[in-house]
Amino acid sequence: KTTKFWFRRRFLDLPQESSAMLEKYADTQSDEEVRKLHEAFRKYSDTQSDEEVRKLHEAFTGSGGWMENHLPQSCVVEFPVHWASTGIDKTNTEHAKYLNELKDKFKTLLVDAFDTALAQEPSAIYKEVVHHQQLCKQKLSMFSGRKRELAAISTHLLRPASAPFVLWGPSGRGKTSLLAKAVSEARTEHLDAAILIRLLGTSAASSNGAELLRSLCTQLSVVFPQKVFADEERIKKADYRELCLLFKTSLGKIPSTEKCIIFLDSLDQLSDQDRARSTLAWLPSSLPCNVWLVLSTLPDKDYGCYSCLQLRYRENIAAVFCEVSNVSPDFAREIILHWQQDDKRRLNDEQLESICKAVDTSSADKGPLYTRLLYELCLSLRSFDSLPRLPETVHDVIATIFNRLEIKHGR
């Protein structure tokens, strides 16, 4: 909740006639009021009627108005001060005292407000949002490349939404890191959009359908507080079936003048409680034009997400399904050079070329994860060590790393 303060300066003994100095101290609440008041200043003279002068006076002294009607008295800090022909003048003893009191009061209230906020226990939804943002930040630290996929997501987010954008590919292709990068770019390209992120399966509130929807509905109600969303108590007590309805209804109630982008990584990591993973019934069959969903999943039949998405959005397959490409030798070289720069380490030329050759674009197993593991394996070698035959799968690389640890430290 935002704490609001109104530091209200009220002039005493304000002159009845207008002046250039007096105009500088007009307090108004809207562009229209500013325009009207400026017009009044330009035409006011001693010949104006008493009623017009009185109305102008009220604009200064603040008898009524938007601020008074919308802020509780506890939020108003009033400073009565006598008017001087020179305006607020620090050489004037009364004005100097007023400025010091204003400064001290502002500092005290602001520090107290921060202390109060910091002393409060963060809400569950706040912790959840921060958790996923931190994970995204970690994933970005090692990201490189993927210009084709990022361009496809960026293009999709510029079009009116109708169906989700689905990233898919085998495990180890770097889908989560790619999604984290897409989130980062969306924040830059869509400054006016509300962006929600969940890396599914990484927290209790993102591991099953009901808790995921509860979390998303709660965040939507915080992001769009003035809209007609379900209240917090209803969301808290709702079961899976009702949460499905609440989620779809909430997306539909986002005003057309506002934008919302939701990134959900690893649908396959949802539990199948309430058949949330195998049916994906909680996803809307069509999206409002100002709401975008970016999803990622494995293509494995064991989880069923990919085939379910194909069936649900079969009319949009060409537009919204994007396979995360495998790592080519050139791409492997690019990301290894990026890692070396970050790690301040260097492979010799033979080691680098051996990794690039080991990366086979025809093998679904040889993605960024496989490349990273080979990189770590080769970093453990000394520059004069002979290069062993590199393992051909992720499983084999991990086994090799563990074998080396056992040789060095014992079983």
Describe this structure in words.
It is a single chain. With 411 residues, this protein is of the alpha/beta class. The chain has 18 helices and 7 strands. The protein has helices at residues 20-23, 31-43, 50-61, 66-70, 93-119, 124-140, 147-158, 175-189, 209-223, 232-237, 240-253, 276-279, 305-312, 317-320, 329-343, 349-358, 368-379, 394-409, and strands spanning 6-12, 76-82, 165-168, 193-199, 259-265, 291-297, 321-323. The strands form 2 sheets. The chain has a 5-stranded parallel beta sheet with strand order 4-5-6-3-7, sandwiched between helices. Strands 1-2 form a two-stranded parallel ribbon. Helix 16 runs antiparallel to helix 17 (368-379). The longest helix is centred in the N-terminal third of the chain and has 27 residues, at 93-119. The chain is extended. The two termini are 55 Å apart. Residues 41-47 have low confidence and may be disordered.
**Span between termini:** 55 Å
Which oligomerization state do the chains in this entry correspond to? single chain
Give the integer mean of the pLDDT values.
80
Residue share in helix = 40-55%
Radius of gyration: 31 Å
**Structural class of the secondary elements?**
alpha/beta
